[in-house]
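re: ur question from yesterday

yeah so i grabbed the chain u mentioned. its 203 aa long if i counted rite. heres the sequnce exactly as i have it in my notes:
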Amino acid sequence: MPHPVSAPGPSLRFPHPLTLLVGCLLVAAALTWVLPAGQFQRREDPVTGRSVAVAGTYAPVEAQPVGPLEALVAIPRGMAEAASIIFFVFLVGAGFTVVERTGALGQLVNWLAGRLSGRGLLVIPIAGLAFGAGGVFIQMQEELIAFVPVLLLLTHRLGFNPLTAVAMSLGASAIGASFSFINPFQVGIAQKVAGLELLSGQG
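ran it thru and got these structure tokens back, copy pasting raw so excuse formatting
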């Protein structure tokens, strides 16, 4: 007699990023009711013009707990203050999506596989430079997901293992992003937060 097949249980799903952000905001607001409040004395840095904390001047102050309504109002207020950064990220992502949807990148990889047949070693520096440039200009990380099938097919056709595909894409992009001085995300946003002139690191 066949045994009845039990229905699969509900699978765990990672929360949506917006859910995580709102959750972190609410936790931070709740901690204002628990943690003691304090602040540093501040002075203006003559080099950068920023207001910086003075070491050794921390002192407790009267607590000002944040209520649920104030925490929710902080979301649109923060978006308004960081509007230039938010829309800049949207525009960069939209531009990359348009290029990806045209299929031009996939056709380029297929063309490389055909042209470099028998000279497979050349694809590693060429792809590495291309993805490294992507890391320099747009900090290409999650965008590489779209290239995974194409890169695996390319490296397989050229006789390389999957680790080679990871090294010449994610590895090259990470190195490019690490040494970039014009990266709009980790450099541009950091300079915006630090109060420095945008892309001032390029000299």
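noticed a couple things. The longest strand covers residues 42-44. also The first helix runs from residue 17 to 31.
anyway ttyl
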